[in-house]
Amino acid sequence: MSMIRDLRAAVRPAPRQNVTTPAVGPYDTTRDPSTPTAVVDCAVYRDGRRLRDEDCLTPGGAIRKARRDGGFAWIGLHEPTESEFAGIAAEFGLHPLAVEDAVHAHQRPKLERYDDTLFTVFKTIHYVEHAELTDTSEVVETGEVMCFTGRDFFITVRHGGQGSLRALRHRLQDDPELLAKGPSAVLHAIADHVVDGYLAVADAMQDDIDEVETDVFSQTGKGSPRGIDAGRIYQLKREVLEFKRAVAPLQRPMQLLSERPMRLVDPDIQKYFRDVADHLARVQEQVVGFDELLNSILQANLAQASVAQNEDMRKITSWAAIIAVPTMVCGVYGMNFKHMPELRWRYGYPLVLVVTVGACFAIHRILKRNGWL
């Protein structure tokens, strides 16, 4: 079907010019001031086309119209409170456990089935631009998108300032044939959108890791390398672990959506979840590689610092050995014995100075030749 062949082009943004810039346009960080509740958007789609908004001003009205005239309702919410979500949950028959997770957030990515509803949790990742990576730099910001997929409705609950779905909704509305496939088409589009965001963030983080790696190993051969601030590496490693917590748990849900037949997922749409799962596996490999590479960089940096400390100790020891010669001579001749060798000899003092300087010079040459100075 031509509609299915064009599915990827419909739900994905245009090619990015800059991997660190979200392709879906500006993120929404606040609710619409004109919206007194957590509902960001509410619409009914029939045959892939959005019906007039005045026909579905409330989530309850939207689902009743969808069930009466066919099609499905798509309700978008941003950080709803328990009281705001209670009425919607009752209207759509959502399970209390899923409702609790959606309201309180801070969930791991997962896929759960409650009766005739699929509950899916996605972690959204946004790359934070920074002029210079420091030991306090925030590299990634996370948010959450919870999706309730039913036979005639689709509900999204967003948490965090990132991960707006407004541009994605508009792109889907431009492809009625795709939206005609129902709520599972929207679920695939969101999954694809989230994983594409992971790819962009992974590319941007690769640049940060390359920069740190260059800073560490570019000091090799420059005398006494002392490494860079380990705090930068540790902070970047923390951000990679945050990224990993979003990516790793999502693999199982994507595998289920792509391999296990489900009544709520259209068979023509399900095969495209395999593509999302493949991209997710690629990101997972990158994140694991980042973690291992940062471990190696941190160990190399610590090794350089240890080498620098050993170099310092060798130099200190060398100069202590040189200074020990005049200290010993002065200590011997500082003792007030009456009978001392050459004590009354006219050239005794110059000879002692010459012998002392000569011994110090000889020790310096030996240590220099052996690389201690």
Describe this structure in words.
By secondary structure, the chain is an alpha+beta fold. It has helices at 2-5, 7-11, 59-69, 82-92, 96-104, 166-173, 176-179, 183-217, 230-247, 251-259, 267-333, 348-369, and strands spanning 39-46, 49-50, 72-78, 110-114, 117-127, 140-149, 153-159. Strands 2-1-3-7-6-5-4 form a 7-stranded mixed β-sheet, with helices on both faces. Strand 4 (110-114) and strand 5 (117-127) form a beta hairpin. Helix 4 (82-92) packs antiparallel against helix 5. The N and C termini lie far apart (77 Å). Residues 1-35 have low confidence and may be disordered.
- Could you describe the largest sheet, including whether it forms a barrel? 7 strands, mixed
Specify the helix fraction band: 40-55%
SSE sequence, one letter per element: HHEEHEHHEEEEHHHHHHH
Secondary-structure content class: alpha+beta
Largest sheet, spatial ordering of strands:
2-1-3-7-6-5-4
- Assembly type of the chains comes to single chain
Which ranges are low-confidence, i.e. pLDDT below 50, for 5 or more consecutive residues?
1-35
Q: What descriptors fit this protein?
A:
7-stranded mixed β-sheet; disordered N terminus; rod-shaped; 373 residues
Topology:
Elements: H1 2-5, H2 7-11, E1 39-46, E2 49-50, H3 59-69, E3 72-78, H4 82-92, H5 96-104, E4 110-114, E5 117-127, E6 140-149, E7 153-159, H6 166-173, H7 176-179, H8 183-217, H9 230-247, H10 251-259, H11 267-333, H12 348-369
Parallel strand pairs: 3-7
Antiparallel strand pairs: 1-2, 1-3, 4-5, 5-6, 6-7
